[in-house]
Design goal:
8 helices; mainly alpha; 203 residues; single chain; 78% helix
Length: 203
C-alpha cells in the first residue's frame, strides 16, 4: 500500500501538468483570434475590408447612376426629337391645308373647271398631307390633272402614283419618267397640266 502511494504521486503530477498546458493552449486560441477567426494581430483587417466594400459599392452605385442618367437623357433627347418632328409635320399640314382653303375661296370656279368639286379637292389634299406634309396644293392639283390626262394611255400613271413619287422626294417630271414616260413626254404632260390649272383659276 505504501508503494502504491509512492507510484501514484508522479502520475498525478503528470496529469496536472498536461491539464495546465491544455488550459493555457485553449486560452491562447480564444484570446489570440480577432473577429472572423483571423489573428488578432493582423493590422486593420476588419477596417480595410469594410472600407473596400463600401468604396466598391459606392463606385458601382455611381457608375450605375451615371449610366441610368445618361440613358434617361438619351431617351429624352430622342423622344424630344420625335416630338419636335411630329409637331413640325402637324404645323406643315395645318399651314398647307389653310392655304388650300384660301386658294379655293379665291378661285370658286377652279374645281368645276377641272371637272371636280372643291370638296373633293379639299378632302383629297388633306388625306395626301397625312403622308406628305410638304406637299403643296398646286402639286396636288397638278397630280390630279396628270392622272386624268395620262391614265388612258399609261394605266400606271395615276394620281396616287404621282403623289407617291412626290412623297419620296422626286419631282413631278422625274416621277413621270419613273412611271414610264419619256423625258420629253413627261415635260409636255407637266406643262399641259400646269396650263390647265392656271386657266382654271382665271375669273
Amino acid at each position: 500500500m505504501k508503494n502504491f502511494g509512492l507510484l501514484a504521486l508522479p502520475v498525478l503530477g503528470f496529469i496536472l501538468i498536461v491539464g495546465a498546458q491544455s488550459a493555457a493552449s485553449a486560452q491562447g486560441r480564444r484570446g489570440g483570434h480577432g473577429q472572423g477567426g483571423l489573428p488578432a494581430g493582423t493590422p486593420g483587417i476588419g477596417r480595410s475590408n469594410s472600407v473596400g466594400v463600401d468604396r466598391g459599392t459606392g463606385i458601382s452605385s455611381d457608375r450605375s447612376n451615371r449610366r441610368a442618367d445618361m440613358g434617361r437623357e438619351t431617351a429624352s433627347d430622342r423622344s424630344n426629337g420625335r416630338s419636335d418632328a411630329g409637331l413640325e409635320r402637324a404645323r406643315l399640314r395645318s399651314e398647307n391645308a389653310r392655304q388650300a382653303d384660301e386658294e379655293l375661296n379665291e378661285h370658286p370656279w377652279m374645281a368645276e373647271r377641272l371637272h371636280t368639286t372643291a370638296h373633293d379637292l379639299r378632302s383629297g389634299y388633306r388625306a395626301a398631307l397625312l403622308t406628305n406634309p410638304k406637299l403643296t396644293f398646286g402639286q396636288y392639283v397638278a397630280a390630279t390633272r396628270l392622272g386624268a390626262n395620262l391614265g388612258g394611255r399609261h394605266p400606271n400613271v395615276t394620281t396616287g402614283a404621282i403623289l407617291g413619287g412626290l412623297a419620296d422626294g422626286k419631282s413631278i417630271g422625274r416621277t413621270l419618267q419613273v412611271l414610264g414616260l419619256g423625258e420629253h413626254e413627261a415635260k409636255d404632260a407637266k406643262k399641259r397640266a400646269e396650263q390647265e390649272v392656271k386657266e382654271a383659276k382665271r375669273h
